[in-house]
Amino acid sequence: MNSVLFARVRALVDGLTGAGEAGLRCTPAGMLLVAEGQHPAVEEVRLGQSWWTKNTTLAAALTAMPTTTSGLTLYNGEVQGGRCYIVHRVTVAEEIPDATQQDSMAIWVACGRSFTAPTAGAVATGSYSGIKTYPGSAIVAVAATTVVADSPWLPVGTSAPGNTQYTGSNFRTTEVNFGRPFVVVPGGAFHLAASKLAGVASQTRYVIHWTEVQLVVA
What we know:
Elements: E1 4-8, E2 21-25, H1 40-46, E3 50-55, E4 72-75, E5 84-94, E6 105-112, E7 123-127, E8 139-142, E9 154-156, E10 172-184, E11 189-196, E12 204-213
Antiparallel strand pairs: 1-2, 3-7, 3-12, 4-8, 4-11, 5-10, 5-12, 6-9, 6-11
């Protein structure tokens, strides 16, 4: 739907001049455009709403599908009616890939609505617009306990092919951009985990990318 609305100016705001008709434009979805802006993702970054977080201490990958423990958890600590967290991307970096067999990894995510606030873990949180300190209500936990019934694990992305074996300390990064983002409501949580044939201790760094917005959800 492409629409153009017209309005008659009946009162002027101090500092503005002119009167007459002005075109009010809508997006194809029918949303009114009050002012010109950048792409929505750019506007979210500009307004300081986009963040990422990672575990600062390397963790061991799982050797089976996750059950009740995540690698990294993003908990929405907003009050009811507060902002939702839109998780649009995850990254898993291996700093010590498998050296004796094919290095292949599966990434799992889960999202639920009812969790007890976890204890914050050793993490580093950064801003897409360079804000030094995160001012929001998110709690990021490492190896947090999940509620399986409320948030079943979903495999995401495609495993990158690995060499038969690696030698020495190498780095591999696997990233998944979601075609449909996950919405974490206040009191909810998003979980990230990875599994491999051999979960070498202290090798994995998890990263969750999210944007905080005000939404009305079903």
